[in-house]
Amino acid sequence: MEITAGNKLLDLTKKTAIVTGAVGIGYGISYRLAEAGANVLVASRSKEEVDKTVSELTSKGWKVKGAIVDVSKEEDVKKMVEEAVSDFGAVDILVNNAGIYPSIPVHQMTLDDFEKVLAVNLKGVFLCTKYVSEEMIKQGKGGKIINITSIDALHPSSVGLAHYDASKHGVWGFTKNVALELAPHKVWVNAIAPGGVTTPGVTKLQKAMHVPQGVDMTKVLETFLAKIPMRRMGEPDDIGKVALFLASDMSSYMTGTQIVVDGGVLLS
Ligand SMILES: NC(=O)c1ccc[n+]([C@@H]2O[C@H](COP(=O)([O-])OP(=O)(O)OC[C@H]3O[C@@H](n4cnc5c(N)ncnc54)[C@H](O)[C@@H]3O)[C@@H](O)[C@H]2O)c1
């Protein structure tokens, strides 16, 4: 077998990617895919976030456009796929990254709280996968789908996230089934399970956390970091680099897998 040069394997020129979620991990992934030469459609429900990310990445000379989308709404998702095709001519890579993780104890959780998390984290992944895979099958040149799950798809990271953990276990199961189903079409489907990554969403979660009187938040965070063998939180780029690997020919023999990117935290 001929061995292709490593830099060529990572080259995404002429490929088009849709990345859902415009800040945090979504930004880290969009950055690496665009840098590798892909056309990137950054899709999020917030126009402000989309505009900021598009303006930062296009200022580097990269081909990036934005779409305002709520991934839990079927019409929005259909339109997003149409926009990618009309803007760039095809869709080759989908990264299902948009997600929410509000912390609520299960006995205080309303049905609405539960359904909202499932709607974005699980139904959103289904809708984007449905319409993108339809397009990929029609194009007939294969594709890559990358689902951002969480270590919570394997093991709970904290209390208050029962709805979130249910959604992420769901996405992992969905990933494996869809990988099997889309393999005859050469569409490879994998997941990335991040541990704690510093993002706007995590900062919001930490601010909203109820700290009981007398508990020192600095000590709580120190204890949290002490549980991570690498002794640091993840950065969006730690996930962006693995997404680039899965989006590229570097991962030529992989489908139906989940890569844990957590600084070793599941070991502790
Ligand atoms: N940050 C972490 O520690 C961590 C750990 C494990 C998994 N994850 C997963 O990574 C993904 C990204 O997390 P993050 O920390 O970057 O989050 P974040 O809150 O910082 O950013 C989320 C992005 O998704 C967008 N979004 C939210 N709901 C949407 C919707 N309905 N439609 C379209 N866009 C929507 C937001 O506008 C935002 O751009 C999520 O799926 C999350 O579960 C994060």
From TrEMBL:
Matching entries from InterPro entries are given as: NAD(P)-bd_dom_sf, SDR, SDR_fam
Residues that span the membrane, as ranges:
none
Pfam families given in the database record? adh_short_C2 (PF13561)
Give the source's domain of life in one word: Bacteria
Q: Which PANTHER family does the UniProt entry name for this protein?
A: 3-OXOACYL-(ACYL-CARRIER-PROTEIN) REDUCTASE (PTHR42879), 3-OXOACYL-[ACYL-CARRIER-PROTEIN] REDUCTASE FABG (PTHR42879:SF2)
Give the family from UniProt: Belongs to the short-chain dehydrogenases/reductases (SDR) family.
Instruction: Kindly provide the name given to this protein in its UniProt entry.
Output: SDR family oxidoreductase
Which species?
Answer: Candidatus Roizmanbacteria bacterium RIFCSPLOWO2_01_FULL_40_42
